[in-house]
Amino acid sequence: MVGTRTVLITGGAGGIGRFLAEAFRSAGDTVVLADLPSSRLTEVGEELGVATVPLDITDQQAVAAAVEAVQAEHGPIGALVNNAGILHLHGDVLSLPVADYETTIRVNILGTFTVTQAVAKAMIASGTRGAVVNISSIGGRQPTPGMGAYETSKAAVDAQTRWAAIELAAHGIRVNAVAPGPVDTPMMKMGMPEGSPMREAWLSRIPLKQMADPAQVASAAVFLASDGAADITGVSLPVDGGQLLA
């Protein structure tokens, strides 16, 4: 039930993380933001009036300790949003450094799995019929040259979503994903300003001619974690303006 839960959101210091925090807080949930230790994480938590926890999602012991600490202070985790991930390591199949590929896989796939496993165990132990929402990408289904490492990782996140959904269903835990197209975060607006050739090239691929609004991505996550989606599990919901149709 939305409004009575503790919601843990990873990648909380980033652009989409902030919108997720605002959306779940507006629904009445207790929000805890997790991200790598930084002044930015502290600032976002203070600005929004939500709790924060510094966390490296690739560190299994740190994840287990963070989940325990969150539950000790805020009660059982009722929903997890796996938003943490990296996008910036690009390169084509002939030139991408193996180390960059490995880093992307480690954060986007192994990190998502590590947090999901720890939170699912905690939900089962507390008898919580919870929800997990992974932030994926339509890139997992539609390739863009130079972005293969990221897109491979998001295809794996979609597969992991289905895997966790079918195995955790017996415990009443639903697992879904939101798969945005390009998200119009402040950083995206800086890199692709209105009217720029790069922005127009992206928009030409999108039937609705608009990039994903981060608030709409957050709304989709809130829905999938809510009682309104009580019979939905194992789904990766595109929020892409129809880009997968093109």
Offer a few descriptive terms.
246 residues; alpha/beta; Rossmann fold; seven-stranded parallel beta sheet; 8 helices; 7 strands; globular
At a glance:
The chain contains 8 helices and 7 strands. The protein has 246 residues and is of the alpha/beta class. The chain has one domain: 3-Layer(aba) Sandwich (Rossmann fold).
What does this structure look like?
By secondary structure, this protein is an alpha/beta fold. The protein has one domain: 3-Layer(aba) Sandwich (Rossmann fold), CATH 3.40.50. Helices cover 45% and strands 15% of the residues. The protein contains eight helices and seven strands, in the order E-H-E-H-E-H-E-H-E-H-E-H-H-H-E. A seven-stranded parallel sheet has the order 3-2-1-4-5-6-7, sandwiched between helices. Strand 5, helix 5 and strand 6 form a beta-alpha-beta unit. Helix 1 packs across helix 8, helix 3 packs parallel to helix 4 and helix 4 runs parallel beside helix 5. The model has no long low-confidence stretch (mean pLDDT 94).
